């Protein structure tokens, strides 16, 4: 069961349970140490800090070795707790280190980016990148507690905020038509995070609880990610590098197009999706010469079975389907559609 607490401020009482542990350790990067840690430091009781460098490039076995070494140097026993204060990198990697240290100690996620609050901290997927493969090593383990507080978003750079917002759009499109309508009527800067975030998290939680290890239904959370993830991966080492959500925004347009082609949504609904997404994210210039690069990533996608490409599409607005088989030609056609918008 995912245990998630939504807060709008922090009090001593919120962290009183930490006194039941033998030791408390907070994992931070230089940004969350500077912007987030001061908001809770005085409420945690006596604790130690482990500081790592920020960035996806740091989500490696080398950094885990450093974290495990620090945990060992602190003599943490099995009744200690690790508090992961940061974005998805800290949460995924800190959770992985906690889940493996002495066969697993308790850990708490305090996500500080929008992406981590509505997506990465919920659902129990933990891990690191390995030999250039994203999230290649990891485990499923539900955190003992997730504490979500939008106060952290105040210091988050706008591109990061907008990137995380793509997952909120995704959750609405796959599971909540009313929220989709509300999003379209409200400018991003006027959204009330205290309402939107819990709503979006609840969508993810209910999907994950129905299918914790992604045997079926959980795959609907991959809407926009078959195409989006391939675009993100291909551009990663180039000057056209995109944030995750920026790539997923493109992927959602392409996969909404595929949903329309399969007669699941109407041309008007597709047009609404494109208009809204392009009002939040600038349109990116994609060259046809990049297609072969996207294709190689799409063919490697973890969701495929054998040589067939499988993705999650919209069945209608607010409902998604999974294991939808699409051909590379159909995907190329959907990227042409995006380019022509
Ligand atoms: N486990 C899952 O289910 C899941 C789901 C989605 C994504 N992820 C993972 O999440 C990671 C991406 O997470 P992310 O987008 O949060 O990136 P991130 O953790 O790299 O954080 C983005 C940047 O924001 C900084 N930052 C964090 N909080 C801040 C704040 N409040 N104020 C100022 N700066 C702040 C960080 O230091 C970093 O530089 C990826 O590794 C991805 O694989 C995991
Ligand atoms: Zn995503």
Main attributes of the structure:
about 350 residues; 6-stranded parallel beta sheet; two-stranded antiparallel ribbon; 10 strands; about 45% helix; binds nicotinamide-adenine-dinucleotide; binds zinc ion
Which helices and strands occur, and which strands form pairs?
Layout: E1 4-6, E2 24-29, H1 30-35, H2 37-40, E3 48-52, H3 61-73, E4 81-86, H4 88-100, E5 106-111, H5 114-120, E6 125-130, E7 133-140, E8 145-148, H6 158-175, H7 177-185, H8 193-210, H9 225-235, H10 244-261, H11 267-280, H12 291-300, E9 309-316, E10 319-326, H13 328-340
Parallel strand pairs: 1-8, 2-3, 2-4, 4-5, 5-8
Antiparallel strand pairs: 6-7, 9-10
Helix pairs in contact: 5-6, 5-8, 6-7, 6-8, 6-10, 9-10, 9-12, 10-11, 10-13
The structure holds nicotinamide-adenine-dinucleotide (NAD) and zinc ion (ZN).
Residues 29, 31-32, 35-36, 54-56, 59, 86-90, 92, 112-113, 115-116, 119-120, 123, 125, 135, 152, 155-156, 160 line the site of nicotinamide-adenine-dinucleotide.
